[in-house]
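Quick one, probably user error.
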């Protein structure tokens, strides 16, 4: 899929912008603070409903404005173009598909945008929440029942946590929610495991292209609880501890994963640049798996590709991107030397104070 049109209003410093994009490589250059990352943030919002910068929802709205709007016209291989929109109005988020209001899950199902940015090393070295998000975005796009199962689990978790904190503790209700949580955990964990099984060969290939010096990669998945026994048994054993803490200590909401290599058997063995390249390998593996399943590539945003990556590894990153049929949105303060002299055409844009000019 590719974004033909991206229209942005009142997002960060961008007041109003109407961009026509090429289906191939779109390169945005401009000074610090010009608005390059904000452009990728806008595209990412359409697919994730939040920013990759982890800011609160209202930090995105341009200062002094009432809220932002992002609209995209998405060309698809399998259907006629789809119009996708997200807006923040009066402290609420509204999402639209073909101009009709839809739940956010509907918007996300139609729009696939992956971004790699200077904070992406957090996928490897940061908190587990980011890794669960990565995982669940992937599972959501390949397993249609995932969202419903995930919501069922979240509901049971909320109920159980409320009960843990309540002063009138009722063991029977607790046992019932333990059971419900355990039942809801099963399909989630199966889907997550199956996703990693499918991702592993793609990760093997992208790591080989980017980080062959580290040897074979392996994904280690931790489901968030000891999967050898039913979760409700474990919850019953941990009930007193959970009550003291006021929340549920085990379950798929605590799931995590890591990538280890022959030459780096623990994530702490990776240098900062290697963490970034490993995160990029994971992102590109996810893009390839998506393309395999959906029959079309997600849009790929690359913010400041050169940051902390040496020239040889930049070249490898661009080689990996060049093997895709994806629309690429890439930013940098300077044009990347490694980008010139390649086969694919580049559409160049200059970004300045939230305004974008197409060059050539
Ligand atoms: N809510 C907001 N309202 C108005 N301006 C904002 C808001 N949030 C951020 N900004 C401004 O928008 C600009 C952010 O732009 P952005 O991060 O997209 O820049 P960039 O071109 O990616 O820069 P860099 O090269 O430093 O990464 C900054 O000048 C910042 O001060
Ligand atoms: Mg930036």
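Nope, works fine. Designed sequence:
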């Amino acid at each position: 899929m590719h974004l033909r049109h991206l229209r942005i209003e009142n997002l960060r410093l961008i007041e109003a912008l109407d961009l026509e994009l090429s289906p191939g490589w779109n390169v945005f250059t401009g000074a610090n603070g010009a608005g390059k990352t904000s452009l990728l943030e806008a595209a990412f919002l359409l697919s994730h409903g939040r920013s990759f910068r982890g800011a609160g929802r209202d930090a995105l709205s341009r200062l002094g404005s009432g809220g932002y709007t992002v609209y995209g016209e998405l060309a698809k291989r399998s259907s006629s173009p789809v119009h996708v929109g997200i807006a923040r109005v009066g402290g609420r988020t509204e999402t639209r598909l073909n101009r009709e209001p839809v739940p956010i899950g509907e918007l996300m199902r139609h729009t696939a945008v992956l971004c790699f940015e200077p904070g992406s090393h957090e996928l490897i070295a940061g908190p587990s929440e980011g890794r669960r998000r990565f995982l669940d975005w992937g599972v959501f796009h390949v397993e249609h029942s995932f969202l419903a199962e995930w919501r069922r689990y979240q509901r049971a978790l909320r109920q159980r946590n409320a009960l843990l904190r309540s002063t009138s503790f009722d063991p029977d209700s607790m046992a019932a929610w333990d059971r419900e949580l355990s039942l809801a955990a099963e399909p989630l964990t199966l889907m997550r495991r199956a996703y990693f099984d499918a991702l592993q060969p793609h990760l093997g290939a992208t790591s080989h292209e980017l980080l062959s010096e580290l040897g074979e990669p392996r994904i280690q998945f931790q489901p968030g609880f000891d999967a050898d026994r039913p979760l409700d048994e474990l919850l019953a054993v941990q009930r007193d501890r959970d009550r003291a803490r006021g929340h549920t200590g085990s379950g798929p909401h605590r799931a995590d994963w890591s990538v280890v290599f022959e030459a780096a058997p623990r994530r702490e063995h990776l240098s900062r640049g290697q963490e970034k390249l490993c995160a990029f390998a994971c992102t590109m593996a996810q893009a390839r798996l998506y393309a395999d399943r959906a029959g079309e590539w997600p849009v790929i945003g690359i913010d400041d590709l050169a940051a902390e990556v040496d020239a040889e590894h930049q070249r490898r990153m661009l080689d990996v991107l060049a093997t895709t049929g994806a629309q690429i949105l890439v930013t940098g303060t300077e044009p990347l030397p490694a980008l010139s002299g390649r086969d694919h055409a580049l559409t160049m844009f200059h970004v300045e104070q939230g305004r974008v000019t197409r060059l050539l």
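Residues 127-296 form a domain with the Glutathione S-transferase Yfyf (Class Pi); Chain A, domain 2 fold (CATH 1.20.1050.90).
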